[in-house]
Amino acid sequence: MAKRNLPLWMKDAELSPVANASKRPRILRDATPNETVGKESEVQPVKLVQQDQQESQSTPTTEDENTPRRRLRSNYKIPDDDGYPKREPVVKINIDDVPFIDYKGTIRYYTDWRDVACACDELLQWVEKQPLTPVPIAFDLEWPFSFQTGPGPTALMQLCADLQCCYLFQLSCLKRLPVALLQLLHHPKVRLHGVNVKNDFRKLARDFPEADAETMIGQCADLGQWYNRIHGSTGVWSMERLVLQVCQLRINKSKHVRMSKWHVLPLNDDQKMYAAVDAYIGQEIYFKLKEKELKLEQERQELDLALLAPANQQ
Fold first, then answer.
1. pLDDT tens track of the chain, all 314 residues?
2. Cis preceding linkage at 178, omega within 30
């Protein structure tokens, strides 16, 4: 076979000094990036360079010693005197073992505009007679929901001022809210409360423009946020989880009742009980959180007095 001749440009590349320099063996050397290597610079042997690298890695510099080290998060706790870490007791609540809410109070259900106005007027008179301020009233709304059309207009309003009585107002048959109901919702002594109650106020104001959502939001209490402030916790609470945590009870959130047609009159007994329990248990949670808050405030005052006692003796 005849020997192939290389092109001229390949022959020139082989004879060029750049190609010959690339074939030379590389020698490790400590040099800074900006240092210019001259012909007369001495090249250190490879072994010495490797030794210098090992020494630099083994001996920390002063900058490494002063640099703060990052601590990783861990659940490990400092052991006690016996040498074993102390574990905190874990309390688990099995929802299947918790009883359902048993409401035995009165349910006052109104569908006529005049009946709603008269009931709200009675509540206003009751609020004016209360010596303590604010007066807590549990608040909740129900409306139909469809996966095709989305949420419908507000159909039902639940109010609970007394643990023995819950008011259900059928708003789906009203074109406008009675003046007595607006006065009750906007009353300065009334504190409306619930779980995620601010969204309910906005929903009511969209369906009935005469309702002032900002006024109700300014003087309301969100039970989930209030629980977080008292216990120093974080998170978004649902009514079901909050009832289990505070009251150790179970609320019935049956889907066939919760997703039922709340705008169709009249409501059946299951719908009335479902709506009344939502308002009743909200009032129960409010009283328990208020009791817990007062207890913590009393403990803080006792601790402050105990700390001030030695200073007064001196």
1. 566 676 666 665 555 555 555 555 554 454 444 444 444 444 444 455 455 555 555 555 555 556 556 555 555 454 444 444 344 343 567 777 899 999 999 999 999 999 999 999 999 999 999 998 999 999 999 999 998 989 999 999 999 999 999 999 999 999 999 999 999 999 999 999 999 999 999 999 999 999 999 999 999 999 999 999 999 998 899 999 999 999 999 999 889 999 999 999 999 999 999 999 999 999 999 999 999 999 999 999 999 888 887 766 66
2. no
Sequence-ordered list of residues with C-beta below 8 angstroms from that of 42, at least 6 positions apart, any chain: none
* Integer Rg of the chain from CA: 38
- CB distance 119 to 109 below 8 Å: no
Q: How far is Cα of residue 111 from the mean position of the Cα atoms in its chain?
A: 37
Q: How far is CA 304 from CA 9, 142, 308, 314, in A?
A: 93, 46, 6, 17
Residue 306 has which token pair? 């105990």
Q: Whole-model pTM?
A: 0.70
Could you give the C-alpha distances from 7 to 2, 4, 11, 18, 21, in angstroms and in order?
16, 10, 6, 18, 22
Count of all residues that appear for the chain in the document: 314
H helix runs in the chain, sequence order: 8-15, 17-22, 46-58, 62-66, 113-129, 179-185, 197-207, 213-218, 223-231, 239-246, 255-258, 269-313
Token code pair at residue 133: 């301020």
**Helices and strands per DSSP (H, E), number in the chain:** 12, 8
Sign (positive or negative) of CA dihedral 307, 312, 313, 314: positive
**The tokens of 33 are what?**
């990036």
Q: Are strands 145-146 and 150-151 parallel, antiparallel or unpaired?
A: antiparallel
Cβ contact 170:110 at 8 Å: yes
Tokens of 116: 């709603």
Q: Which residues pair with 194 in a beta bridge?
A: 222
